[in-house]
Amino acid sequence: MSIPLEKSGKPNVHDYFCKTECTWCDGCGDYGIMAATKRALVELEIAPHEVALCFDIGCHGNTSDKMLGYRVHGLHGRILPFASGAKLANPNMPVLAFGGDGASFSEGVNHLVHSIRSHYPITFVLHNNANYGLTTGQASSLTWQDQPMNTSPNGIPEDTIRPMDFIFSLQPTFVARTWSGDIPQMTRVLKAAIQHRGFAFVDILQACPTYNKFATHEWLLEKCYDANADGHDPSDLVAAKKIACDTSEKVSCGILYQNEDRPHFYEKLVPRQGVKTTAVEEVEITDVSGLMKEFV
């Protein structure tokens, strides 16, 4: 039974409950990612009305009507500029953006590049299932080599983008990886990402039981390991790059790299320094009827 927020004083997972039925395939990683997102927000005592949840196009994007909160379902590959703008307008509100590998490393790869280099203070969650699941399993730029996919039964002719090499080349300040079958680890990583000073990149390797037959739930269960529990120091950039990019034997998960010393985009805006109000608080209702008469 849901306890109303105004009575309990603290949010719980039921406050994020929505009656819309989930339509994902059985075994889809979206179930686990949504559960971990709710847990992370609740454990940080963030209520649905205190966070902006921004979703790109894809199977994951259907989360927009499956949990409560201020939610936006954007255009394919374009959710990062929207989320960044929302954060700059109201820097006091946590902003989470969710995008698939197709949207983020193909249509919207330019936005990913500039979100990282600009160091916008938002959390970006990559739903990485290495295919376009919503449109029935076409290959994405992260699909592995020599894997038969819909519309490319002989495998992809292009080279596969190595996402961690790509991300680290942009001088990020927070890089994490986890996988959709480990809800406790996802929760821990997402909490750290939300609390990070600047742009937080979270790569979630996601099982797609219908179209991804190579990185299955069983494969991820066998290959993924917790690097933090294994003694990895997230402040060590060299070590972070090494374990993040080398997935030949095992796949490192957890908080791989974090640097809290660099100021984020908003902190570097000279006109906003010393200003106590936010942009949304400075918006006023203005009568423009007189101005409009000039165009009649």
Quick structural gist:
With 296 residues, the chain is of the alpha/beta class.
Task: Walk me through the topology.
Elements: H1 5-8, H2 30-43, E1 52-55, E2 70-73, H3 79-89, E3 95-100, H4 101-107, H5 109-118, E4 123-128, E5 131-132, E6 138-139, H6 163-168, E7 174-179, H7 183-195, E8 200-205, H8 217-223, E9 224-226, H9 237-245, E10 251-258, H10 289-293
Parallel strand pairs: 1-2, 1-3, 3-4, 4-8, 7-8, 9-10
Antiparallel strand pairs: 5-6, 7-10
Helix pairs in contact: 2-7, 4-5
Describe what this molecule looks like in 3D:
By secondary structure, this protein is of the alpha/beta class. It has a single domain, classed as Thiamin diphosphate (ThDP)-binding fold, Pyr/PP domains (Rossmann fold, 3-Layer(aba) Sandwich), CATH 3.40.50. Helix content is 29%, strand content 16%. It contains 10 helices and 10 strands.
Keywords:
Rossmann fold, disordered N terminus, globular, 296 residues, single chain, 10 helices, 16% strand, alpha/beta, two-stranded antiparallel ribbon
CATH topology: Rossmann fold
- Separation, N- and C-terminal Cα atoms: 57 Å
For the largest beta-sheet, the strand count, sense and barrel status come to: 8 strands, mixed
Helix content: 25-40%
Low-confidence stretches: 1-7
The CATH class is Alpha Beta
Based on helices, strands and strand pairing, what is the structural class? alpha/beta
- Rg over C-alpha atoms, rounded to the nearest angstrom: 20 Å
What is the CATH architecture annotation? 3-Layer(aba) Sandwich
Order of helices and strands: HHEEHEHHEEEHEHEHEHEH
* Sequence of strands across the biggest β-sheet: 2-1-3-4-8-7-10-9
What general outline do the C-alpha atoms trace?
globular
Number of domains: 1
Percent range for β-strand residues: 15-25%
Oligomer description: single chain
Query: How many β-strands, per DSSP?
Result: 10
**CATH level 4 superfamily:** Thiamin diphosphate (ThDP)-binding fold, Pyr/PP domains
The mean pLDDT is 95
Number of helices: 10
